[in-house]
Write a structure and sequence with these properties.
It comes from Berryella intestinalis. About 45% of the residues lie in helices and about 15% in strands. By secondary structure, it is of the alpha+beta class. A 6-stranded mixed sheet has the order 3-2-4-5-6-7. Strands 9-10-8-11 form a 4-stranded antiparallel sheet, with helices on one face.
Length: about 525
């Protein structure tokens, strides 16, 4: 696995409404497209599990079409991908299979015919947070994650193929990370999947194809290659950079706090230094990270403000217009000043997300309203500049990184407490640093915010990231400010951050399946919600 970086926690920047059902679906289809030798003309998507039940409300079908057309998960054209497919002459068929069982609930089979008449069938799964895997190609089980550059060689299972591939890559100084071979039987068809550190050019592919047993070669660039052009992909570090990263790869909040205390650093400074080491400590990388955070901040602003001026209905129709109504209430409501703006912004981001607008998953799409609501309302109240805001995002990224490393931020695994609770903890810590609090205060605030959401179940009505998700984002944003206020007053949380995260993880694992994003329990199971069944 690649080490987690800021783009994994404050990101991806994506079209909503679901990191797993929208961004992940797009990623599966995009990886499939990279396997094609020519443009697609006929495509069938067979949806299983959760994909088959909620694909309309989550835009899963649109995301899959977008990916097979070569669009990235943050491309606004994703919303109109069917129209784009028609313009390009690509025939699309979407077949939901609600009866068949698959090992993973977010599974799709993609059957493609290209302009040359060649056919390929791929199975992919969306594993959360916008990440995806290909698990089968033309009936052969594989494991292609897209985290690294992948080269897939289709071949006869014959002696000498691996040595030939290695020779072709080695002669061009292309380093191989891992090699896995999957075959139907001894001497039968096989795929060799290589994770490599560099891209391959046509001459390298021609070299590999020169071996008689090799039938085809396909290259799939790393998912990070689809990030902004100034993003830098961690590959192999020089020895000194490896040692530096090891020192900064904090495994716990206790290690992070000790580093901050020793070096007089804030949490954002410590995590920035870790990010620099992760990116091989080149000055250009530091600037690239700054540009990425500026891009994320702009996307957050747009997602928080657009619905206030132009309200619209969500994909599922459960929400829409709430943010504008709260904003119009102004000083006549019980919440005033920063709290009033915070409420409107949190609601607005979820409206943007649910209507397939561009949001920043921080740490997930379902919790994407918390951090923008807190940080933007504080910026407007206190006049913080964007450099301070980027540091706040880096601070939030550090907290989210520790949670993702030691527990989970996925509702399917840990309930809504893992998504909303994590976002609240991240926002609370960032708010404390913005207001001049110490690293220890930041961790106290994060612990308080997480503990206040402990046990929160994930129960999306009709399986959609709309309700009760929207209101929970607003509540969590308010809770984050309360936690920050208490920490700034010197109120310490009784339980250390690391233990709080562990408790959250244990509680999440103890929740029954019905209360972890299945839409089978909690609010989703209330009788009055039965009328929404099937709208997804």
């Amino acid at each position: 696995m690649n080490p987690l970086g800021i783009r994994d926690i404050i990101g991806p920047i994506m079209i909503g409404p679901s990191s797993s059902h929208t961004a992940g679906a797009c990623r599966i289809a995009l990886m499939t497209r990279n396997l094609l030798a020519a443009e697609p003309v006929e495509v069938e998507f067979v949806l299983y599990g959760s994909f088959s039940h909620t694909y309309r409300g989550h835009g899963t079908d649109r995301a899959l079409v977008a990916g097979i057309l070569g669009l990235l998960p943050d491309d606004l054209r994703l919303r109109t991908s069917f129209d784009l497919a028609r313009e390009r002459g690509v025939n699309i068929v979407v077949t939901p299979d609600t009866a068949s069982e698959t090992p993973h609930p977010n599974t799709v089979d993609i059957r493609v015919t290209d302009v040359n008449g060649s056919r390929i069938e791929v199975r992919g799964v969306s594993i959360g947070g916008g990440a995806a895997q290909l698990t089968r190609i033309d009936g052969i089980d594989v494991e292609v994650t897209g985290e690294f550059n992948n080269m897939i060689v289709y071949q006869n299972d014959a002696p000498g193929v691996l040595a030939h591939i290695a020779s072709c890559l080695g002669s061009r100084s292309i380093n191989i990370g891992t090699v896995t071979m999957h075959r139907t039987e001894k001497g039968g068809d096989a795929f060799t999947v290589l994770e490599i550190d560099d891209e391959v050019d046509p001459s390298t592919i021609d070299c590999i194809l020169a071996f008689d047993a090799v039938k085809s070669v396909r290259f799939i660039p790393a998912a990070s290659a689809s990030k902004p052009a100034d993003a830098v992909v961690p590959t192999l570090y020089p020895a000194d950079a490896q040692a530096r990263f090891k020192e900064l790869d904090f495994s716990s909040a206790a290690e992070l706090l000790a580093y901050c205390d020793r070096n007089g650093a804030s949490i954002s400074e410590a995590f920035s230094q870790r990010e620099e080491a992760l990116m091989d400590a080149r000055p250009a990388d530091e600037r690239a990270t700054g540009r990425y955070l500026a891009h994320a901040l702009d996307a957050m602003r747009e997602s928080a403000r657009r619905p206030l001026a132009r309200p619209g209905k969500s994909m599922g129709g459960l929400i829409g217009g709430e943010a504008a109504r709260v904003a119009a209430l102004g000083e006549r409501g019980v919440a005033r000043g920063a709290f009033a703006k915070l409420t409107a912004y949190a609601l607005a981001v979820l409206e943007t997300n649910a209507s397939m607008g561009r949001i920043v998953a921080a740490p997930t799409a379902g919790s994407s309203g918390v951090i923008p609501a807190v940080l933007l309302s504080l910026q407007e109240a206190y006049g913080f500049d964007d450099e301070q805001m980027k540091k706040a995002l880096m601070n939030a990224g550090a907290i989210g990184y520790l949670i993702a490393r030691n527990a989970t931020v996925a509702g399917a695994e840990g309930g809504c407490q893992a998504e909303i609770g994590s976002a609240a903890g991240m926002a609370a810590s960032a708010a404390v640093e913005l207001m001049g609090g110490t690293p220890r205060m930041c961790l106290d605030a994060a612990s308080t915010a997480i503990s206040n959401t402990l046990g929160l179940v994930c129960d999306p009505i009709a399986g959609l990231v709309e309700a009760p998700c929207q209101m929970r984002n607003a509540s969590a944003a308010a809770g984050a400010l309360i936690a920050a206020q208490c920490a700034l007053a010197g109120i310490e949380h009784i339980v250390p951050f690391d233990e709080t995260v562990d408790a959250m993880y244990r509680v999440g694992r103890a929740l029954p399946m019905e209360l972890r994003e299945t839409a089978l329990g909690g609010m989703a199971a209330c009788p009055s919600c039965a009328k929404f069944k099937g709208i997804g």
